[in-house]
Amino acid sequence: MTSIEHAIQNRLDHLPAPLRIRLPSGRLLGPPEAEVEIAFRDMASLMPMASGNLGEVGARIVSGDIGISGSMRALMHVVAALVPDDGQTQKPKPWQRVWWSLTSILRHNRDRDAQQIRFHYDVSDEFYQIWLDPLQVYSCAYFREPDMTLAQAQVAKLDHICRKLDLHPGERFVDIGAGWGGLLLHAAEHYGVDATGITLSQNQFNHVSRLIQTKGLADRVRIQLCDYRDLQPQQPFDKLASVGMFEHVGRANMLRYFQRIHELLRPGGIAMNHGITVTGLDDATVGGHLGDFIEKFIFPGGELMHVSRAIRIASQAGLEMVDTENLRPHYARTLWCWSDNLEARLPEAEAVLQKSMPPERAAQVLRAFRLYLAGCALAFEEGWTSLYQILLTRPDGPPDGQAQPSDLPGAGADYPFRRDYIYHRRP
User: Where are the annotated segments for Disordered (predicted)?
Assistant: First the structure.
């Protein structure tokens, strides 16, 4: 047995979850009864496994140099055991923070952000339809009742956001990063708002444009293909939502992002920022180089921070945090629903991808998304990442005549400073 094989066997012997390894020679390491098997086609692919570089292992699975068998849920039990330091990297050194800042500046401008968004979201609408809910809501669901289906929980999430924003008929509402239009149309149809959505995805823009016309909402709903920095409304908005877009902004642009939210809101207005954060206080990413995998294959340019840092930057931009809710386990369940949906229809998903790309590329994209969905489910389940809804106000003046002012002196915003309004009012 070589030194690399010894290192792998030693890791297998100490794993709480059973794993079987098939070497290029056909030799098996690990318990024969293990549900999960990882097969290596060449000796070079053994190196990242021996060193614990799971991001590189994932990259080689995508390329086909490493094969996997067994359910994704069982595989993630193994991954959880392999990730070092309870999922967290060590505290970043000062030079690493400087490097993060420099790379964030280089990776985030209008052109690159648009390219990065289209890299992920414009893969194929039909592919996303296979594993998302019927409304194609591509963000954390809200399982208000334990027995809710994914579709029911996504509608509950849309309503939860609308209630938190305290939407009223006739209010001007903007959805930054509107996706396939779930929240935009829900707010217009059920809460009577005048709604504007923006996206950088051509596929999403086309899809939402068709829905607006089909539903006969063109008189009060619109979608624009533009960057949040370039949106120029005729007048400020009463309410604003940003769902699943915060992660794409980049650390270097985060202050400008929240300043832009402040500019888009009228005095007294309310904004909801719904986004993924890391649990490491120093903005450390998940261990085992798993973040590198997501950066390369799924979300180029994605950058996460701790929720406390996000709130601090929002405060620097002149916004007041009035409510924050952690939906972490809801996202774990959402991602497992997506993963299970995709796993149940793998041949169909690959055939759909082959309509828009060569067969080998389609196989790679499918392998990447299988690892991404199940891996992210694990990250939220284990508490390596979180999902926060941060409710913010622009408290720099009394609400105008169209607002729904609080009856508390000094509120300075529409927010009533009582949580019961979220649960008692019906659309």
Answer: 396-416
Query: Which residue range is the domain that position 60 belongs to?
Result: 3-82
pTM of the model: 0.88
Report CA 97 to chain centroid distance, whole Å: 23
Same domain, 126 and 46: no
From first to last of the 427 residues of the chain, give the pLDDT tens digit: 677 777 778 878 888 888 999 999 898 988 888 999 999 988 888 888 777 788 888 889 999 999 999 999 999 988 888 776 554 555 555 544 444 444 444 454 555 555 555 444 557 889 999 999 999 999 999 999 999 999 999 999 999 999 999 999 999 999 999 999 999 999 999 999 999 999 988 889 999 999 999 999 999 999 999 999 999 999 999 999 999 999 888 888 899 999 999 999 999 999 999 999 988 877 556 655 677 777 777 766 678 889 999 999 999 999 999 999 999 999 999 999 999 999 999 999 999 999 988 999 899 899 999 998 998 999 899 898 999 999 999 997 554 544 455 677 777 788 988 888 888 755 4
In this structure, the answer to whether residues 27 and 146 fall within a common structural domain is no
377 pairs with which residues across the strands?
none
Asked whether residue 187 falls in the same domain as residue 111, the answer is yes
Domains in the chain: how many in total?
2
Residues 122, 134: Cα–Cα separation, whole Å: 18
Beta-strand runs (E) in 102-201: 172-176, 194-199
- One domain, residues 184 and 75: no
Instruction: Give the length of the chain.
Output: 427
**320 burial class (0-12, 13-18, 19+ CB within 10 angstroms)?**
middle
**Options 140, 162, 337, 376, the catalytic residue:** 376
Specify the amino acid at residue 146: P
> 155 lies in a domain?
yes
Q: For position 69, which CATH number holds?
A: 3.30.1050.10
Residue 226 annotated among the catalytic residues of the structure: no
**149, 137 contact by CB (below 8 A):** no
Domain end, chosen from 82, 111, 129, is at 82
The burial class, CB within 10 Å (0-12 / 13-18 / 19+), for 319 is: buried
Q: Exposed, middle or buried, 38 (CB in 10 Å: 0-12/13-18/19+)?
A: buried
109 and 45 share a domain? no
CA-to-CA distance for 45 and 336, rounded, in angstroms?
28
Last residue of a domain, one of 51, 82, 113: 82
